[in-house]
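Session log. Operator J.P. requested a structure for one protein chain; no other inputs attached. Running the standard single-chain path with token output.
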Amino acid sequence: MGYIEGTSRDQAMILVLDEMVASESMVRVIDRFVEVCDLGEIGFANIAPSQNGRPSYPPSVMTKLYL
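Structure written below.
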């Protein structure tokens, strides 16, 4: 099992989430920062997906939400 997969932010739809966030928003900095970090290297534990039970959300997504 892997992680729960969300829909692509670039997917064509009536409202595109990426266009709803200002280009100068701090959210974009947080998004990029978490994407380039190696979460395991900076001390996050249990970043490998479990093989049992329901798939979890990726640690990078949860970190972005927390920040």
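Operator note: The chain has one domain: 17-66.
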